[in-house]
Amino acid sequence: MLTPDELKEKIYLDEKSTSNPVLDAIYFFLLKEMRRSSCNSFMNQTKYKKNKDDVAWRCNTASCNYYQDYFSIRINSFFENFSTDLGFIIRVIIKYLTRQQIFSILEYFRVNKSLIYKIINKFKFLIPIGDYSNNKLGGPGMIVQIDESMLNFKAKNHRAFSR
Protein backbone atom coordinates (compact mmCIF):
# COMPACT_ATOMS: atom_id res chain seq x y z
CA MET A 1 0.00 0.00 0.00
CA LEU A 2 1.22 3.48 -0.83
CA THR A 3 2.00 6.00 1.83
CA PRO A 4 0.31 9.40 1.50
CA ASP A 5 3.58 11.04 0.44
CA GLU A 6 4.18 8.44 -2.30
CA LEU A 7 0.61 8.91 -3.50
CA LYS A 8 1.03 12.68 -3.48
CA GLU A 9 4.18 12.35 -5.59
CA LYS A 10 2.31 10.11 -8.01
CA ILE A 11 -0.60 12.53 -8.28
CA TYR A 12 1.30 15.74 -8.89
CA LEU A 13 2.52 15.80 -12.47
CA ASP A 14 4.83 18.17 -14.29
CA GLU A 15 3.40 21.53 -15.17
CA LYS A 16 3.90 20.63 -18.85
CA SER A 17 1.44 17.71 -18.75
CA THR A 18 -2.05 18.24 -20.13
CA SER A 19 -4.08 16.63 -17.33
CA ASN A 20 -3.83 16.96 -13.59
CA PRO A 21 -5.15 14.03 -11.49
CA VAL A 22 -5.93 16.32 -8.53
CA LEU A 23 -8.28 18.35 -10.70
CA ASP A 24 -9.72 15.11 -12.09
CA ALA A 25 -10.39 13.96 -8.50
CA ILE A 26 -12.08 17.27 -7.69
CA TYR A 27 -14.28 17.08 -10.78
CA PHE A 28 -15.19 13.49 -9.87
CA PHE A 29 -16.94 14.79 -6.74
CA LEU A 30 -18.58 17.72 -8.57
CA LEU A 31 -21.60 17.48 -10.81
CA LYS A 32 -20.87 16.99 -14.49
CA GLU A 33 -23.92 18.96 -15.55
CA MET A 34 -26.49 21.08 -13.79
CA ARG A 35 -30.13 21.59 -14.72
CA ARG A 36 -31.82 24.84 -13.69
CA SER A 37 -35.18 24.07 -12.08
CA SER A 38 -36.86 27.33 -13.12
CA CYS A 39 -36.24 26.99 -16.87
CA ASN A 40 -35.52 23.23 -16.98
CA SER A 41 -32.44 23.66 -19.16
CA PHE A 42 -28.80 22.80 -18.59
CA MET A 43 -26.40 25.45 -17.36
CA ASN A 44 -22.89 25.94 -18.73
CA GLN A 45 -19.70 25.70 -16.73
CA THR A 46 -17.80 28.96 -17.17
CA LYS A 47 -14.78 30.71 -15.72
CA TYR A 48 -15.67 33.09 -12.92
CA LYS A 49 -12.98 35.07 -11.11
CA LYS A 50 -15.18 36.44 -8.31
CA ASN A 51 -15.29 33.20 -6.29
CA LYS A 52 -12.48 31.07 -4.91
CA ASP A 53 -13.17 28.14 -7.26
CA ASP A 54 -12.65 30.25 -10.43
CA VAL A 55 -15.48 28.25 -12.06
CA ALA A 56 -19.26 28.64 -11.83
CA TRP A 57 -22.50 27.51 -13.43
CA ARG A 58 -24.21 30.03 -15.72
CA CYS A 59 -27.70 29.93 -17.17
CA ASN A 60 -27.76 31.00 -20.82
CA THR A 61 -31.47 30.55 -21.52
CA ALA A 62 -32.91 33.95 -22.42
CA SER A 63 -36.41 33.16 -21.14
CA CYS A 64 -35.13 32.18 -17.68
CA ASN A 65 -35.51 34.51 -14.70
CA TYR A 66 -31.87 33.83 -13.81
CA TYR A 67 -30.51 34.54 -17.30
CA GLN A 68 -26.70 34.98 -17.21
CA ASP A 69 -26.56 34.66 -13.43
CA TYR A 70 -23.71 32.72 -11.86
CA PHE A 71 -24.21 29.85 -9.40
CA SER A 72 -21.57 28.12 -7.30
CA ILE A 73 -20.13 24.94 -8.72
CA ARG A 74 -20.40 23.37 -5.25
CA ILE A 75 -24.22 23.27 -5.36
CA ASN A 76 -25.59 19.71 -4.95
CA SER A 77 -22.11 18.19 -4.70
CA PHE A 78 -19.90 16.70 -1.99
CA PHE A 79 -18.35 20.15 -1.39
CA GLU A 80 -21.63 22.02 -0.84
CA ASN A 81 -21.30 22.75 2.89
CA PHE A 82 -17.55 23.42 2.85
CA SER A 83 -16.06 26.86 2.35
CA THR A 84 -12.43 25.73 2.21
CA ASP A 85 -10.27 25.11 -0.83
CA LEU A 86 -11.31 22.11 -2.92
CA GLY A 87 -7.72 20.89 -3.12
CA PHE A 88 -7.45 20.82 0.68
CA ILE A 89 -10.57 18.66 0.95
CA ILE A 90 -9.21 16.24 -1.65
CA ARG A 91 -5.86 16.05 0.18
CA VAL A 92 -7.64 15.15 3.44
CA ILE A 93 -9.62 12.44 1.64
CA ILE A 94 -6.44 11.06 0.02
CA LYS A 95 -4.74 10.84 3.41
CA TYR A 96 -7.79 9.09 4.84
CA LEU A 97 -7.97 6.66 1.91
CA THR A 98 -4.34 5.64 2.40
CA ARG A 99 -5.38 4.43 5.86
CA GLN A 100 -3.50 7.12 7.70
CA GLN A 101 -4.74 7.62 11.25
CA ILE A 102 -6.99 10.59 11.86
CA PHE A 103 -4.63 11.79 14.58
CA SER A 104 -1.75 11.97 12.10
CA ILE A 105 -3.97 13.73 9.55
CA LEU A 106 -4.77 16.36 12.20
CA GLU A 107 -1.08 16.74 13.02
CA TYR A 108 -0.12 17.00 9.34
CA PHE A 109 -2.56 19.76 8.40
CA ARG A 110 -2.70 21.62 11.75
CA VAL A 111 -5.97 23.37 10.97
CA ASN A 112 -9.38 23.30 12.58
CA LYS A 113 -10.03 19.78 13.93
CA SER A 114 -13.76 20.05 13.43
CA LEU A 115 -13.27 20.78 9.72
CA ILE A 116 -11.20 17.64 9.17
CA TYR A 117 -13.67 15.55 11.18
CA LYS A 118 -16.53 17.01 9.14
CA ILE A 119 -14.79 16.10 5.85
CA ILE A 120 -14.00 12.55 6.97
CA ASN A 121 -17.47 11.93 8.42
CA LYS A 122 -19.18 13.19 5.28
CA PHE A 123 -16.93 10.93 3.18
CA LYS A 124 -17.67 7.95 5.45
CA PHE A 125 -21.38 8.63 5.00
CA LEU A 126 -20.96 8.18 1.22
CA ILE A 127 -19.37 4.74 1.61
CA PRO A 128 -22.05 2.04 1.72
CA ILE A 129 -22.13 -0.40 4.63
CA GLY A 130 -21.14 -3.92 3.56
CA ASP A 131 -24.06 -6.32 3.25
CA TYR A 132 -22.91 -9.82 4.11
CA SER A 133 -26.38 -11.33 4.42
CA ASN A 134 -25.98 -13.43 1.25
CA ASN A 135 -22.90 -15.28 2.48
CA LYS A 136 -23.02 -18.95 1.62
CA LEU A 137 -21.09 -20.16 4.67
CA GLY A 138 -22.02 -19.55 8.26
CA GLY A 139 -23.54 -16.53 9.82
CA PRO A 140 -24.75 -15.61 13.29
CA GLY A 141 -25.84 -18.73 15.19
CA MET A 142 -24.82 -21.18 12.43
CA ILE A 143 -22.02 -23.69 12.86
CA VAL A 144 -20.13 -24.66 9.72
CA GLN A 145 -17.85 -27.68 9.50
CA ILE A 146 -15.15 -27.65 6.82
CA ASP A 147 -13.25 -30.77 5.79
CA GLU A 148 -9.67 -29.53 5.44
CA SER A 149 -8.44 -32.73 3.80
CA MET A 150 -10.08 -31.63 0.55
CA LEU A 151 -8.19 -28.32 0.56
CA ASN A 152 -4.68 -29.81 0.31
CA PHE A 153 -3.87 -29.59 -3.38
CA LYS A 154 -0.06 -29.80 -3.08
CA ALA A 155 1.79 -32.80 -4.44
CA LYS A 156 3.79 -34.66 -1.85
CA ASN A 157 7.49 -33.91 -1.84
CA HIS A 158 10.31 -36.50 -1.70
CA ARG A 159 8.35 -39.49 -2.90
CA ALA A 160 10.43 -42.58 -3.24
CA PHE A 161 10.64 -44.10 -6.67
CA SER A 162 9.32 -47.61 -6.90
CA ARG A 163 11.87 -50.02 -8.51
From TrEMBL:
What are the leading ranks of the lineage? Eukaryota, Fungi, Fungi incertae sedis, Microsporidia, Tubulinosematoidea
The name of this protein is: Uncharacterized protein
